[in-house]
Write a structure and sequence with these properties.
mainly beta, eight-stranded mixed sheet, 8 strands
Length: 103
């Protein structure tokens, strides 16, 4: 899903986090939409780099929506045998370098 499929980069993320445990790196984005009905997606960017980069998208609701703040958490992960120090997540505000916590 990308901008061309009704998705656009999300501007409502308030924080990003990442941790590595064993051979898995987990990346999360948290935030709040101002209304209900949004669909949010954290997806790996279509480029061949290591560590992978991610993009936070959302699709605006269509039709009537409830007027209530709606929190979201979106996650993605990838496998790595190497220790990963940071990952990059892009959203409507640009690129964010996210430190990877080792567990």
């Amino acid at each position: 899903m990308t901008e061309s499929r009704g998705m656009e980069r999300c501007a409502e993320a308030s924080s990003f986090s990442a941790f590595q445990k064993g051979g898995q790196v987990h990346v999360s984005a948290m935030g709040t939409h101002r209304t209900g009905g949004y669909k949010t997606l954290l997806t790996q960017a279509p480029m061949s780099v290591f560590p992978p980069q991610f993009i936070l998208y959302h699709a605006r609701p269509s039709g009537p929506v409830i007027q209530v703040f709606t929190p979201f958490t979106e996650s993605a992960s990838f496998t790595s045998r190497e220790i990963v120090d940071q990952v990059v997540v892009a959203d409507a505000h640009g690129r964010h370098e996210v430190r990877v916590e080792q567990k």
